[in-house]
User: What shape does this take?
Amino acid sequence: MKHLIIKQKTCLAGGLIACCFILLSFTLGGDSYSVYLNSKLVFTAYEHSKTAMSKPVDLNLDNMNDKLVVEYSQCGAIGTGRRIMVKDENNKLIKEWTFTDKAGKAMIINVKDILHADHQGGILKLYYASARYLPEGRFLTILKINGKAGTKSSVAKK
Assistant: This one.
């Protein structure tokens, strides 16, 4: 009888250990972000996903009156002391926007501010930063800038 109880406890402990390994193999939480041009979703990305990648956002003079919207979730919460930064290909800061903690989830940027930014060439990088968890910033996507009107944008206009 004692041998049977010990065997049952051993099996139970082994099963619990196996369950723990299975549960720990999943990534819980994590950061996610979505980028919109006006109200149209360009893409959504998840930091812990092995397959999700951001896609470049094409901007041109036709987008002059548009809004670029970034929604960033840090493990399901909105960060504090949030900033959106645009850098050039050499990671030199071109422009930075700050957002109050009460501004809500969406961080809205006028595309004309990006198009008028002083930069060399047609590629800019978009970054997100928050005071507590991401003070140095996290790369979000590439902004492809074309100074001509009529070129194809990432999101078709209706």
Notes: Residues 18-28, 152-158 have pLDDT under 50 and may be disordered. The two ends are 77 Å apart (CA to CA). The helical segments are 2-24, 111-115.
